[in-house]
Design goal:
This protein has 195 residues and is mostly helical. The protein has six helices and no strands. The N and C termini lie far apart (72 Å).
């Protein structure tokens, strides 16, 4: 009887130990899976933003100077409009370059908003608009500062203002579509309808 009692107790201890080991292993595997998923989600959120910021930095190099972009814009304009004047080509080139500033920073604003609204940091989720606007302003000012050292470029606070305006367009667009997706804003309605 004593042997049966010891065997029963040993069996319970073995079961308890194996149950503890198994549950610990499962919890560890789940934690690892959650950490891996969290890492993938962060990469999915922030990688496009970082890549776009790198592109903006590259675009402020000599490769995208007015001289180099005119090699594309001028022939295209002459092909589309054979009788265009040099003055009109210059104006169109200037407008294309400023539209590029607005567009690249609107994309930056959208990507920053996308990254910050899904952040694991509550501060960034709650203050995503301000955080994204600060990032846009910093990128715009650093971009123009960098251009002041590139021989074929000039740094301009005016261009930084255009960049920040483009970023604001992206942020406002993101906010609008986010509100529409959440059902807080119906087509044709102005402002927010929070009920």
């Amino acid at each position: 009887m004593l042997a049966v009692g010891n065997a029963s107790r040993d069996g319970k201890q073995l079961w308890a130990a194996s149950h503890y080991f198994l549950s610990t292993s499962i919890r560890g595997a789940l934690r690892l899976e959650m950490e891996t998923r969290s890492t993938r989600e962060r990469i999915w959120r922030y990688a496009p933003l970082i890549i776009w910021m790198a592109f903006i930095s590259f675009a402020s190099s000599n490769e995208f100077s007015a001289i180099n972009t005119s090699r594309v814009v001028r022939p295209l304009l002459l092909w589309l409009f054979p009788n265009i004047t040099e003055e009109s080509i210059g104006l169109a080139h200037l407008l294309v370059r400023k539209a590029a500033h607005i567009t690249e920073y609107a994309v930056l604003g959208w990507l920053a908003a996308r990254a910050f609204t899904g952040s694991s940091r509550e501060f960034l989720r709650r203050r995503w608009f301000l955080a994204a606007l600060l990032l846009i302003a910093l990128q715009a000012l650093l971009d123009e500062y960098h251009q002041s050292f590139v021989p074929s470029r000039t740094g301009s606070l005016y261009d930084s203002g255009i960049d920040i305006a483009g970023g604001l367009i992206g942020l406002i667009g993101f906010s609008y579509f986010r509100s529409r997706a959440a059902g807080n804003l119906r087509p044709g309605q102005k402002g927010h309808n929070r009920t």
